[in-house]
Design brief:
The protein is an alpha+beta fold. It has four domains: 191 residues, no CATH class; 102 residues, Immunoglobulin-like (Sandwich); 135 residues; 136 residues, Immunoglobulin-like. Helices cover 48% and strands 20% of the residues.
Length: 583
């Protein structure tokens, strides 16, 4: 009983620490996101550049063949020397000086600081060939998506989480809650070792699968020594090593006769098996570190204790079918309920804090894939909590009263709980490979301007690449909580250049979604400060407007011609280049 109280106190403590850290500063970092390319996507150059550079919002690791360049016929034209660029946030590859005029496609891959691979592509033009922004289909045709590998990776992650959580939870149940009945202990020990084996095998398999995804070479990457070495020495490799050590310790210690040393070794191994999650995934780079680490540890430990306890209870209830044995089993259920209650509290506290770290905006819960997966996970957890409450409040007392069919119903509901938790782990396996909203939002903040649009709405606008020539303008009309609002009949923009006395040029906007509009065109052809006015017709008799200024630079090829061909990095729209104006 003392061990039970100690374990409950530890889990509750982790949850309280996570809650306390909620007062910390806002987070930063996650999946690496592209913030600049050199040349820019769709840029037209007079002469071939010396190299291609891609820049990210965080430090990245270059896998083999990190950046590749293809001509219009699909032939490789780069020098094959891809690697780090001028900083740890950049990747680059050299180009030969005699590239002929034409359209060139760049395909890039990188490993985020959170160990997840990211990839993409863009176009640039040498000479007078026509081009536009890269069609996503072109990248898919050039650099296959390998959906089979992605599915395999999700399955392997699920088995890894399932095995590790189950082994850790069963071990915790055996040393903290079980009454050491010999025949049941043998069954539970065997189940613990099988779960540890499944978790260990899946952990080992995760390394070549990740290597293949990172390299983008398909199944050949599963046995590529260079890719495997790069993956094994990454954060994912460190996480795998800790998890394997923890599972191995659990498998060895759990067969020892009960003693303080065996209990300590078992709990240490169980802790290592779940703490390995801290070394890879979104939380490996999230801030504030105290909040993230405490929340992740509490979340993983509480989920393991709950899941393993439910599976163990299902075994116990199945083997104790007589009336007297059912009453004894009800006592075990009661003891587990105390730990489960603390686990639920820790899950809620840590899950809330981790959700705040990764999502940050309520609107992103419904508008992003990550948010939708998170809501699905929360919904399943809510059902599990409801079933657990029903068990604890009604079925356990009914079993003690020898009520008809109570023990049978308790066995069924415990099995349902365990199945639902396995579903939660499956959702988690997909969730950890999905970029959270904050990862997608942060790189845009520097290039976004916001302005009041009437009394009820806010306009969010971006202008890319903010250079003289063709620019893409994107607009979003949102409410006070940042949710897109489909309020207008139509929308348009007006361009003016006060310094050059250029009269207003008006363009209708293309509607791309609820509250979202876009325009691509050459109107910003003159460098200097432009004023852009957004005009949205709410009804036939009501119009709202918002204006902002944007500084437009000379294109890079112009800079090349007048500054001894010194190459300049792609300029990103910044807060200094946009000044908000009152509508």
């Amino acid at each position: 009983m003392n061990q039970q109280r100690l374990a409950a106190a530890v889990v509750l403590g982790c949850g309280l620490v996570a809650c306390w850290f909620l007062l910390g500063p806002p987070p930063a970092g996650a999946h690496a996101v592209l913030v600049a390319t050199e040349p820019a996507d769709g840029e037209q150059l007079d002469r071939a550049p010396e190299e291609v550079v891609v820049e990210f919002n965080e430090e990245v690791q270059p896998p083999p063949e990190a950046v590749r360049v293809f001509d219009a016929a699909g032939r490789r034209v780069d020098l094959g020397d891809a690697g780090r660029g001028r900083s740890a946030n950049m990747l680059r590859v050299g180009l030969p000086p005699d590239l002929p005029d034409g359209v060139y496609t760049v395909s890039w891959r990188a490993i985020s600081a959170d160990t997840h691979p990211v990839r993409g592509g863009f176009l640039f033009v040498i000479g007078d060939a026509d081009s536009g922004p890269l069609d996503a289909v072109a990248v898919e045709e050039l650099d296959a998506d390998h959906r089979g590998l992605k599915t395999a990776a999700a399955v392997v992650r699920w088995l890894m989480y399932l095995g590790a959580s189950l082994a850790a939870g069963l071990a915790a149940f055996l040393v903290m809650i079980h009454d050491r009945r010999a025949d049941e202990r043998r069954v539970l020990v065997r189940a613990t070792r099988v779960a540890a084996l499944v978790g260990a095998v899946a952990t080992v398999l995760s390394l070549p699968v990740q290597a293949a995804l990172t390299g983008g070479t398909g199944v050949a990457g599963l046995v590529d020594a260079e890719l495997l070495s790069s993956t094994a020495t990454s954060g994912l490799g460190a996480s795998a090593a800790v998890r394997l050590a923890g599972l191995g310790l659990v498998a060895v210690a759990i067969v020892r006769p009960p003693s303080r040393a065996a209990t300590a070794a078992t709990l240490l191994g169980a802790t290592a098996a779940v703490a390995a999650n801290l070394l890879a995934g979104h939380t490996a780079t999230s801030e504030p570190r105290g909040l993230v680490l405490a929340s992740n540890l509490a979340h993983s430990a509480a989920a393991a204790v709950w899941f393993g306890g439910l599976v163990a209870l299902a075994v116990v209830l199945r083997r104790r079918r007589s009336a007297a044995a059912s009453v004894a089993a009800a006592g075990i259920v009661s003891r587990f309920s105390v730990v489960a209650l603390v686990s639920v509290a820790a899950l809620v506290a840590s899950g809330t804090s981790l959700g705040w770290v990764e999502v940050r905006e309520l609107g992103a819960l419904t508008t992003s894939a990550y948010g939708q997966l998170l809501l699905a996970k929360v919904a399943v957890v809510a059902v599990v909590v409801a079933v657990a409450a029903y068990n604890n409040r009604w079925l356990v007392p009914a079993v003690r009263r020898h009520a008809d069919h109570a023990a049978h119903r308790l066995r069924r509901t415990v099995q349902i709980e365990a199945g639902l938790v396995a579903t939660v782990l499956a959702l988690t396996a997909v969730l950890v490979a999905t970029a959270p909203p904050r990862a997608m939002a942060e790189p845009r903040e520097a290039g976004m301007v916001t302005a009041a649009l009437g009394d009820r709405y806010e306009l969010r606008a971006t202008v890319e690449p903010a250079r003289a020539g063709v620019n893409e303008l994107s607009f979003a009309v949102v409410d006070a909580e940042g949710r897109p609002i489909d309020a207008g009949i139509e929308a348009s923009i007006r361009f003016t250049h006060p310094e050059r006395d250029i009269a207003p040029v008006e363009r209708m906007l293309e509607r791309t979604g609820a509250g979202r509009y876009r325009h691509t065109g050459p109107e910003l052809a003159v460098p200097g400060r432009w004023t852009i006015e957004f005009r949205m017709l709410i009804t036939e008799f009501q119009r709202v407007t918002a204006s902002f200024d944007v500084d437009i630079d000379l294109p890079p090829n112009h800079v090349h011609n007048h500054h001894h061909h010194e190459r300049q990095p792609q300029r990103q729209l910044s807060d200094r280049s946009i000044q908000r104006r009152r509508p």
